[in-house]
Amino acid sequence: MSFKVLQVIPKLGYGGAETGCYDIAHYLAEQDCKSYIITSGGPLLKFIRKDKVKVIRLPVKSKNPILILLNTILISLIIIFLRIDIVHARSRAPAWSCFVSCLITRRKFVTTFHGIYNFSNSIKKFYNSVMVRSNLIIAGSNFVFNHIHKNYGNLINAQKRLLVIFRGINTEYFDNSNITNDKVQNLYSSLKLSSEKFKILLPGRLTGWKGQEMFIESLNLLKTKYNKENFQVIILGSHQGRKVYFKKLISAVEKYRLRDKVFFLQHLKEMPIAYYVSDMVVSSSIEPEAFGRISVEAQAMRRPILASNHGGSTETIVNGKSGFLFENNNPESLAENLNKLIEMDKDKLQSIGNEGRKNVLKKFDVEQMCYSTFLEYKKLIK
User: Fold this and answer.
1) For burial by CB atoms within 10 Å, which of 24, 106, 199, 310 has the most?
2) Which residues, listed in sequence order, are joined to residue 164 by a DSSP beta bridge?
């Protein structure tokens, strides 16, 4: 069965929603379906196979009501002209344009909840509700599924299908066998890493809810309470303009006298290398992750993961087997678990890493995500 799918996403960056859109687009082309993406731009555009996926540039990143209306008209015309069968929206602002366009053109409408949309009033909740006004609603985790039912259950009826399709990652890309010694040595040299020291990686954009401040506090406890000195830390992520918060983190490092142990890295072109050089990975989010991509990537790279015990991380980690969960927003609990992992012998750490790889291949491979989504598309068309 061949059909045409139009995905709409504000910007094609390197986040979970964006890479998911990219992966589905190319998978559809391989199934002899016509695949289109509407986006405002983004760095991932240069990797799109133009012979397989057609890209249309529109200002769908904007929340301006006038531009949303303009996008509605243009998307309606595109649907009619290209004879699109399914429209898949991956964010709220463009979802409103897609929702109205699908009503006008009578096409099937799909949405994916990539995160938790908070609201403080009825207007914001109504704005968010567009994500459950589709024929098919995809939740990226059971945590998100429960959030949808709890907050928007009154909008879900027999004509709508709500299901969980876990995000998938490219396990061929996140694979230790791809890492070359030259790239490892370059990272070692640029950060002055030592092979004799236990290396801890904390990836993620620098923002308060990701818990970097609490993590640094736990490092101080690791040093003062557990007398650990033989470790190095890479905090990898951009502050994205949050300069005050970034300075706050640097001040905390200075305050706890960790300057010779903590390295900040704004960006790394090949993320798998950061996982490879690390002995363990931390996800310290103090607000729940909708899915927890870091936890899955770390496991794919055979590295033990230590994450907060809430949100999507509780679904992606087999606690005690492929990684560990610590008490959310509790530096004491995080420090205790850091110490436990540092004291483990290398064979045990390797065994945990191997279990992580098995876990990801079984549940979170990108092929599985694409295949499940493709089957749901087919059901909609039928």
Assistant:
1) 24
2) 139
Q: Give 121-141 pLDDT, tens digit per residue.
A: 999 999 999 999 999 999 999
Examine the domain organization and report whether 150 and 290 are in the same domain: no
Structure-block tokens of residue 31 = 């199934």
In this prediction, residue 120 carries a pLDDT of 85
| CATH of residue 158 | 3.40.50.2000
Same domain, 116 and 208: no
Alpha carbon distance 207, 212 (integer Å): 8
Cβ(326)–Cβ(338) below 8 Å = no
pLDDT at 189: 92
* pLDDT tens digits, one per residue of 148-200: 999 998 888 888 899 999 999 999 999 999 999 999 999 999 999 999 999 99
Residue 20's SS3 state is helix
Domain coverage including residue 71? 4-168+365-381
Strand order in the sheet with 231-236: 262-265, 231-236, 198-203, 280-283, 305-308, 323-326
- Cα–Cα nearest to 291, from 151, 147, 134, 84: 147
CB atoms within 10 A of CB 113: 24
Q: Are strands 280-283 and 231-236 parallel, antiparallel or unpaired?
A: unpaired
Q: Are residues 51 and 99 in the same domain?
A: yes
Same domain, 105 and 232: no
Q: Which two tokens stand for residue 110?
A: 């799909």
Query: What's the length of the chain?
Result: 382
137 lies in the same domain as 243: no
Q: DSSP labels for 21-56?
A: HHHHHHHHHHTT-EEEEEES--GGGGGS-TTTEEEE
Helix/strand/coil (H, E, C) string of 148-207? HHHHHHHHCCCCCEEEECCCCECCCCCCHHHCCHHHHHHHHHHHCCCCCCEEEEEECCCC
Q: Are residues 98 and 206 in the same domain?
A: no
Residues 84 and 200 in one domain: no
Q: Which is nearest to 201 in space by CA: 87, 307, 128, 127?
A: 307
Residues of the chain with pLDDT under 50: none
Give yes or no for a contact between 160 and 137, defined as CB atoms under 8 angstroms apart.
Answer: yes
Q: Is 344 helix (H, G, I), strand (E, B) or coil?
A: coil
Query: What is the value of pTM for the model shown?
Result: 0.89
The answer on 142 and 86 residing in a single domain is yes
